[in-house]
């Protein structure tokens, strides 16, 4: 099938500061929660940064951003999603004044993008809460964080508001349901955190997100603010209506974040959940008024779908994802157990569009896989046909959704350059079009090499997506080197 992507479609790639920059203690940066998570979400945080934490150096984007952006430009990127490390701008999070050296670093990155005609898409908070806010305040459980975040946003909009059009307030905001420390800087271990405190923290984030939207309209006219949701369509495990309801309730837990961002108030099903679980939120009149500042667009990540069941005996764990759920017996999984479901992307696109009627933006999608660096005609590369197949299969479904009438702004693949994984903190879980020579034990030259998918993606962008379904073998040989 040939589908035409709209003119001006924003093709590109995505990263997060903590997974690419490194330089964790340079330029006046304070510590973030990532600096004490050497194993991602697999083990509890350490007291202080430890040398085995790959994120401390990551892939050294802090010093190599110009080289990396030049490679993105070579692929023809129209947009690059980056995050700003909050602790580079406010080292402790509660500082009175911002750190000029941190601000100047992002000036340089934005200059470089501008030079190449690449539009920035900025995530304001991507799993990198300043550590001090986690330890001294209890992260987002504390209402004070709204004010600190607002000060941070004001600083960003005043400094960059004239040159950044697209902003995302919180990465995968719904992931706090499952990963309170990573996502919400909440130090209480998950099994000891009450739902009361968790939903109060979520409320604070939602108010902060809405305040950021209001502030952007004031300080950065023309800017577009979006929410960012971890999308994972949940199918009933069987046609049993009880399973259908279980799937609906699992969807509700995630929809709530989009509903509040798009409609400006709490949905009835969530209020019911609060009533029935003894959750009483502290919500002020000002909060209610703030929430009315709804987003301009909805962005999301998409990697996999899952199933839900009402039968406790069938509730087996097994998915390598952070959202729980039950494996789908009809799907294959990646090497990390994430079940691959290209059609699920079409489902999400239709579903979100019909539900919220706001433009959508796919800001993460991709395959984490082990890559083998080889030499082809004397040039080091990775023959990553599996990655090309994954992305191609998903883009075919994006084409279907466009044909269904979905309004989609763009598509940024996750980890367009290899980076440190969020959940496992490994280098070997690679997503990039660009291979970075760094290993799980921290060794490696940090040299960059173009993978086969680099040339494939360049052609995808050059043809504005006219080539899907033709796969890797059709990548014009001339483009492969
Ligand atoms: C999302 C995060 C990213 C990213 C991606 C892949 O949840 O927004 O930061 O890392 O997933 O996950 P992982 O790195 O665990 O493979």
What does this structure look like?
It is built from 14 helices and 14 strands. It has helices at residues 17-20, 61-75, 86-89, 100-115, 131-137, 144-160, 180-184, 195-219, 241-263, 268-276, 285-291, 342-356, 385-403, 452-462, and strands at residues 10-14, 79-83, 119-125, 166-170, 224-231, 234-236, 297-302, 306-308, 360-364, 374-376, 379-381, 408-414, 434-436, 448-450. The two termini are 28 Å apart. Helix 2 runs parallel beside helix 4 (100-115) and helix 12 (342-356) packs parallel to helix 13. The strands form 4 sheets. Strands 1-2-3-4-5-7-9-12 form an 8-stranded parallel β-barrel, surrounded by 4 helices. A two-stranded parallel sheet has the order 6-8. The structure holds 6-O-phosphono-beta-D-galactopyranose (BGP). 6-O-phosphono-beta-D-galactopyranose binds at residues 16, 127, 171-172, 301, 364, 368, 414, 421-424, 429. Residues 16, 127, 171-172, 301, 364, 368, 414, 421-424, 429 line the site of 6-O-phosphono-beta-D-galactopyranose.
């Amino acid at each position: 099938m040939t589908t035409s992507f709209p003119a001006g479609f924003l093709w590109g790639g995505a990263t997060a500061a903590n997974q690419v920059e490194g330089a964790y203690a340079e330029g006046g940066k304070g510590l973030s929660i990532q600096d004490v998570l050497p194993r991602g979400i697999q083990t509890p945080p350490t007291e202080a940064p430890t040398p085995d934490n790959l994120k401390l150096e990551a892939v050294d984007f802090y010093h190599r951003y110009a080289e990396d952006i030049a490679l993105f430009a070579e692929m023809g990127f129209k947009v690059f999603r980056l995050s700003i490390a909050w602790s580079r701008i406010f080292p402790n999070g509660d500082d009175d004044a911002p750190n000029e050296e941190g601000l100047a670093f992002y000036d340089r990155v934005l200059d470089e993008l501008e030079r190449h005609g690449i539009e920035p898409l900025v995530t304001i908070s991507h799993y990198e809460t300043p550590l001090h806010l986690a330890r001294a305040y209890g992260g987002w459980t504390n209402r004070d964080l709204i004010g600190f975040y607002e000060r941070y946003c004001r600083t960003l909009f005043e400094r960059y508001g004239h040159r950044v059009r697209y902003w995302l307030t919180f990465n995968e905001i719904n992931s706090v349901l499952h990963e309170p420390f990573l996502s919400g800087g909440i130090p209480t271990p998950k099994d000891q955190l009450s739902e009361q405190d968790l939903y109060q923290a979520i409320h604070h984030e939602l108010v902060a997100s809405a305040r950021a939207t209001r502030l952007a309209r004031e300080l950065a006219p023309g800017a577009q603010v979006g929410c960012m949701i971890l999308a994972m369509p949940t199918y009933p495990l069987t046609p049993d209506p009880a399973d259908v309801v279980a799937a609906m309730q699992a969807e509700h837990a995630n929809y709530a974040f989009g509903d509040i961002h798009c409609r400006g108030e709490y949905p009835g099903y969530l209020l019911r959940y609060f009533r029935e679980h003894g959750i009483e939120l502290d919500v002020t009149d000002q909060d209610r008024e703030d929430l009315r500042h709804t987003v301009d667009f909805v962005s999301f990540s998409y990697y996999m779908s899952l199933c839900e069941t009402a039968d406790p005996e069938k509730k087996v764990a097994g998915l390598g994802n952070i959202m729980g759920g039950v494996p789908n017996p009809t799907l294959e999984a990646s090497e990390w157990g994430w079940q691959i479901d290209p059609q699920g992307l079409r489902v999400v696109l239709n579903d979100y569009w019909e539900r919220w009627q706001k433009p959508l933006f796919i800001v993460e999608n991709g395959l984490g896989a082990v890559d083998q660096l080889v030499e082809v005609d004397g040039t080091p590369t990775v023959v990553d046909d599996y990655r090309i197949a994954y992305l191609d299969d998903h883009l075919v479904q994006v084409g279907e959704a466009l044909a269904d009438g979905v309004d989609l702004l763009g598509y940024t693949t996750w980890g367009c350059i290899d980076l440190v994984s969020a959940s496992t903190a490994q280098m070997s879980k690679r997503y990039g079009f660009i291979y970075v020579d760094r290993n799980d034990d921290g060794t490696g030259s940090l040299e960059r090499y173009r993978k086969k998918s680099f040339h494939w993606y360049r052609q995808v962008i050059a043809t504005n997506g006219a080539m899907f379904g033709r796969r890797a073998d059709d990548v014009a040989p001339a483009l492969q080197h």
